[in-house]
Known about the structure:
This protein is mainly α. It has two domains: 1-50, Arc Repressor Mutant, subunit A, CATH 1.10.10; 57-180, Tetracycline Repressor, domain 2, CATH 1.10.357.10. 70% of the residues lie in helices and 0% in strands. It contains nine helices and no strands. The longest helix is centred in the middle third of the chain and has 23 residues, at 53-75. It is elongated. The termini are far apart. The mean pLDDT is 88.
Amino acid sequence: MSPKRPDAATRRAQLLDAADAVFRVHGVGAPLDLIVEQAGVGRATLYRQFADRHAILQALMERSVERLQQQVERLSARDDAFLLLLQYLADRIVDSPALSDYWRTASARDPRFLPLRRQVWRAFAPSLARAQACGLVRDDLQPGDISLLSGMLGAALRGETDAERRRLVQRALDIIHRGLRPATPA
């Protein structure tokens, strides 16, 4: 597979930025013409990059996982990286509610998304192990539980405004943090 020309890669990123912005306002069912308009490109450019709506959503999710990986690398030396990554996840849920909702509601066994879920679990695993070793989170938490935690944080999507969603996600994160703490001996 030959690498994309810089022009094609730039167009792809431009289309993904536009799709993220359009989906944020109009949901993942928004007309694709809105993405074309937002990106300032022709419809043919969109379809050269993405076969359909699902391909756009898949690419957005792949980009989200790549950005998560960058956060993992940036925070790798910190004992509290796991908790900071949960905060990052919470912020992404609020910043991109339609994509987050799509991600959360896609079947856990959907072959298009299972590899991405596994990448997320693997991304969180080292910081989880470190947080457990430092006594910051309970020992029984597993990397696969990230999907459950993400679902809990996704309850913030019920807020009608950004401010309300931010308040709800912070409240959910506070409750999750308390539940993640190791039990104190009686």
